[in-house]
């Protein structure tokens, strides 16, 4: 139901490093996190890159949109300095670079497909295909694969069509009343929800229906223990310094 790790570093290194950068992954690893969640969007040349916001300005210095620039241009932009001078020089990494790093370090991945507005289908398709290509050997060997997830139904559908062999999780803020019907239609293995919207009853319902249950973003050990006691299978955290990683 949930063959994946329990604790994931949100956006690579939580709030201890600039999100969605290679430095974040290094930071997560330094805190013992060998499981990670990160966000993937398409650059203007269709290359998947790891970044959260569709607009530049918050974590990436500059203006305009992620999909105004090629992956190479984004890689040369400043995505670390906002966090602190020690991180200056970090660029927006390509999806491929992040996967290469994670594979080399044996870090498991929850790959969140994060389409820019209007790009749901191409983003779902491209990320699924790229993941399948990066993990061809593991797919053939029947090894544990990354889990794709998205808030975008269109992206999830496109990912399923492009690479049906890759499992998907459905991201929601609040689990809707008709969630079972939708989860069946989407053919997902897990529900990923905002822990603040979860109740013990809903957690039980999801588990009894045979789905994995994942929560974002859990930042205290007390809340983590409570959710695990409710039957939550895994969660991501920004506080990799407070919550000990378990696999
Ligand atoms: O995948 C869980 C979580 O990352 C979803 O929200 O906005 O942090 O990508 P966000
Ligand atoms: Mg995310």
TrEMBL record:
E.C. number(s) listed in UniProt: 3.1.4.46
Broad EC category: hydrolase
Keywords: Hydrolase
Presence of keyword Zinc: no
Pfam families linked to this entry: GDPD
Keyword Calcium appears in the UniProt entry: no
Top-rank taxon, per record: Bacteria
InterPro entries hit by this protein: GP_PDE_dom, PLC-like_Pdiesterase_TIM-brl
All residue ranges annotated as the GP-PDE domain in the record: 5-247
Molecular-function annotations in GO: glycerophosphodiester phosphodiesterase activity
The name this protein goes by in its record: Glycerophosphodiester phosphodiesterase
């Amino acid at each position: 139901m949930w063959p994946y790790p329990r604790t994931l570093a949100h956006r690579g290194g939580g709030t201890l490093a600039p999100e969605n950068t290679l430095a974040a992954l290094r930071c997560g690893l330094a805190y013992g996190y060998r499981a990670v969640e990160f966000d993937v969007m398409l650059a203007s040349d269709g290359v998947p890159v790891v970044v959260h916001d569709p607009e530049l300005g918050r974590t990436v210095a500059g203006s305009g949109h992620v999909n105004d620039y090629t992956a190479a241009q984004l890689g040369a932009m400043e995505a670390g300095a906002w966090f602190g001078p020690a991180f200056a020089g970090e660029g927006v990494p390509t999806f491929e670079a992040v996967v290469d790093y994670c594979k080399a370090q044996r870090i498991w991945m929850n790959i969140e497909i994060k389409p820019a507005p209007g790009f749901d289908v191409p983003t779902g398709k491209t990320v699924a295909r790229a993941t399948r290509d990066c993990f061809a050997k593991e797919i053939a060997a029947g090894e544990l694969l990354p889990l794709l997830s998205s808030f975008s139904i269109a992206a999830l559908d496109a990912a399923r069509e492009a690479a049906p062999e890759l499992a998907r999780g459905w991201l929601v803020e609040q689990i809707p009343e008709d969630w079972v019907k939708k989860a069946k239609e989407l053919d997902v293995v897990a529900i990923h929800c905002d822990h603040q919207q979860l109740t013990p009853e809903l957690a039980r319902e999801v588990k009894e229906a045979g789905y994995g249950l994942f929560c974002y973003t859990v930042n205290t050990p007390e809340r983590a223990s409570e959710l695990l006691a409710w039957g939550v299978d895994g969660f991501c955290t920004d506080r990799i310094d407070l919550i000990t990683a378990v696999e």
